[in-house]
Design goal:
It contains eleven helices and no strands. It is mostly helical. The relative contact order is 0.10. Pfam families: PTPLA.
Length: 232
């Protein structure tokens, strides 16, 4: 009942202005992630090290990854057909890694997991945002459609490996500095250990990975089978 009311209040299709905004957003994100990939390539081709890598890409990652929070707003305003909770879950893991791990420790940015994350994220987002932008003007080539629903087969496991490595290399520092940890006694009678929270969070990847990967496989079969039917 509530969904029906919301659909009447907020149209399911974005207006011309909404489409222009989404087109601009997706183009800017495509350029931003391409720039990050370029920064990374230049850094390592010039014999840059892991120790100096974060300094080169830090602000690009902060800006364009945190900008993805807008996608939750897009879903809430029905500018896009995605559900709010689905988008929130997709955006949260990366924003958490950037703001809760990479920006708060020195071990995570020096981890070999960071370039893995950047490689997987950059290629994924260049393809994804490029696909979204062209889809708004009904100009998606078949090759981009295939990449949109195929690159995750390699890049998703690669990205998750990078994320877990970054978190792993942050653990000792978090434990020794008691980062974001609240110990008893205190006036709130509340206890929180960020070290154990992060370990628990990392363990969640074990049951969640096959679920999310399976969902993407279903989406791949659905979208690519549609493309085959169109050709026929």
């Amino acid at each position: 009942m509530i969904d029906k009311v919301i659909k009447k209040i907020i149209p399911s299709e974005p207006s011309a202005l909404g489409k222009l905004y989404l087109l601009s957003y997706n183009i800017i994100q495509t350029i931003g992630w391409f720039y990050l990939l370029w920064e990374s390539a230049v850094h390592f081709l010039n014999r840059g090290t892991l120790a100096t890598y974060w300094g080169e890409v830090k602000w690009t990652i902060i800006i364009f990854q945190n900008a993805a929070i807008l996608e939750v707003v897009h879903a809430a305003l029905r500018l896009v057909p995605s559900g709010v909770m689905v988008v929130l879950m997709q955006v949260y893991s990366r924003v958490f890694l950037v703001c809760g791990v990479l920006l708060t420790t020195q071990g995570a940015p020096a981890s070999p997991g960071l370039p893995l994350c950047v490689l997987a994220w950059s290629i994924t987002e260049i393809v994804r945002y490029g696909y979204y932008a062209l889809n708004l003007i009904n100009s998606v080539p078949q090759s981009l459609l295939f990449l949109r629903y195929s690159t995750f087969l390699v890049l998703y496991p690669l990205g998750i490996t990078g994320e877990l490595l970054c978190m792993y290399h942050a653990l000792d520092e978090i434990a020794s500095h008691k980062l974001f940890t609240v110990l008893m006694p205190n006036k709130w009678n509340f206890i929180f250990n960020y070290y154990y929270f992060l370990i628990f969070y990392m363990l969640l990847y074990i049951p969640l990975f096959p679920v999310l990967f399976g969902h993407m496989l279903k989406q791949r079969n659905k979208m690519l089978s549609k493309d085959v039917k169109k050709k026929i």
